[in-house]
C-alpha cells in the first residue's frame, strides 16, 4: 500500500480528508476512517499536521539521469507555479518535496487515469500527454528534491 507522508501538507489535509469522507477520493481504508469525522475534526487534524517538521529527503542518492529528466519536465510543465519553486506547497496545493516516491507516482497515475479527481481536475490536464516513464522521473525528482545551488544546481551534491 502506498502511504503518504503527512507532515507539513499546508492546508491540504482538511480538503483531502473531506474528499475521503465524501467518498470522492478512492482509498477504502481512508474513506472508512474519515467517515463520521466532523468539519472541526478535519480542521484540527490539519492544524496538527501543519505544525510537524517537514519530511527529510530519502537517504539514498537520486539517479542523476532520472533526477535531471524529472527536473527538466517539472520546469517545462510549470509544476512550481502551483506547488511553489521549492515544492513546499501552498493553500490546496500539497507539498511535493521529499514525499515518498511510490506515493507520488501513484498520485500522478491516478490523476492521469481520472481515478483521483480532486477539486477542479487541474492535475489531470497538467499531466496530459506524459508517458509512464515521465511520471516516474517526475516522482523520482520530487522525492529527492534539492534546492538548486552552486555549479551542481539541484543535483545530489546539493544536500
Ligand atoms: C494549476 C495548478 C497546478 C499545477 C500547474 C500543478 N499542480 Fe499538482 N496539484 C494541484 C492541486 C490543486 C493538487 C491537489 C489536488 C487534490 O488532491 O485534490 C495537486 C496535487 C498534486 C499531487 C498529489 C500530491 C499529494 O500529496 O497527494 C502531485 C504528486 C502533483 N500535484 C504533482 C504535480 C506535478 C508533477 C506537476 C507538473 C507536471 C503539477 N503537479 C502541476 C495543482 C497543480
Architecture blueprint of SSEs:
Layout: H1 13-21, H2 28-34, H3 39-50, H4 64-76, H5 79-83, H6 101-113, H7 122-126, H8 132-143
The protein binds heme C.
Describe the structure.
- By secondary structure, the protein is mainly α.
- 48% of the residues lie in helices and 0% in strands.
- The chain contains eight helices and no strands.
- It has helices at residues 13-21, 28-34, 39-50, 64-76, 79-83, 101-113, 122-126, 132-143.
- The longest helix is centred in the middle third of the chain and has 13 residues, at 64-76.
- The radius of gyration is 16 Å and the shape is globular.
- The two termini are 29 Å apart.
- Residues 152-159 have low confidence and may be disordered.
- Residues 4, 74, 77-79, 81-83, 92-94, 96, 99, 104, 107-108, 118-119, 122-123, 126-127, 138 line the site of heme C.
- The site of heme C has 23 residues, from helix 5, helix 6 and helix 7.
Précis, in short:
This protein is mainly α and 159 residues long. The chain has helices at residues 13-21, 28-34, 39-50, 64-76, 79-83, 101-113, 122-126, 132-143. Bound molecules: heme C.
Attribute tags:
159 residues; mainly alpha; 8 helices; 0% strand; globular; disordered C terminus; binds heme C
Largest sheet: none
Number of beta-strand segments: 0
Report the bound ligands by name, code or SMILES: heme C
Q: Which radius of gyration do the C-alpha atoms yield?
A: 16 Å
- What is the overall pLDDT average? 84
Shape: globular
Unreliable parts: 152-159
Please estimate the helix content: 40-55%
Strand fraction equals: under 5%
Quaternary structure type = single chain
- The helix-and-strand class reads mainly alpha
Tally of individual helices: 8
Query: Helix-strand pattern, N to C?
Result: HHHHHHHH
- The CA-CA distance between the termini, in Å, is 29 Å
Amino acid at each position: 500500500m502506498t502511504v503518504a507522508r503527512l507532515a507539513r501538507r499546508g492546508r491540504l489535509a482538511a480538503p483531502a480528508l473531506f474528499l475521503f469522507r465524501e467518498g470522492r477520493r478512492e482509498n477504502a481504508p481512508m474513506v472508512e476512517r474519515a467517515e463520521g469525522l466532523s468539519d472541526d475534526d478535519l480542521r484540527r487534524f490539519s492544524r496538527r499536521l501543519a505544525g510537524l517538521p517537514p519530511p527529510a529527503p530519502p537517504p539514498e542518492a537520486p539517479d542523476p539521469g532520472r533526477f535531471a529528466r524529472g527536473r527538466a519536465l517539472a520546469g517545462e510543465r510549470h509544476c512550481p507555479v502551483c506547488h511553489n519553486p521549492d515544492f513546499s506547497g501552498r493553500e490546496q496545493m500539497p507539498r511535493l518535496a521529499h514525499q515518498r516516491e511510490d506515493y507520488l507516482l501513484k498520485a500522478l497515475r491516478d490523476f492521469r487515469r481520472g481515478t483521483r479527481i480532486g477539486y477542479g481536475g487541474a492535475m489531470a490536464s497538467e499531466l496530459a500527454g506524459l508517458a509512464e516513464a515521465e511520471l516516474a522521473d517526475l516522482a523520482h525528482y520530487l522525492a529527492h528534491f534539492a534546492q538548486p545551488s552552486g555549479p551542481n544546481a539541484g543535483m545530489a551534491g546539493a544536500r
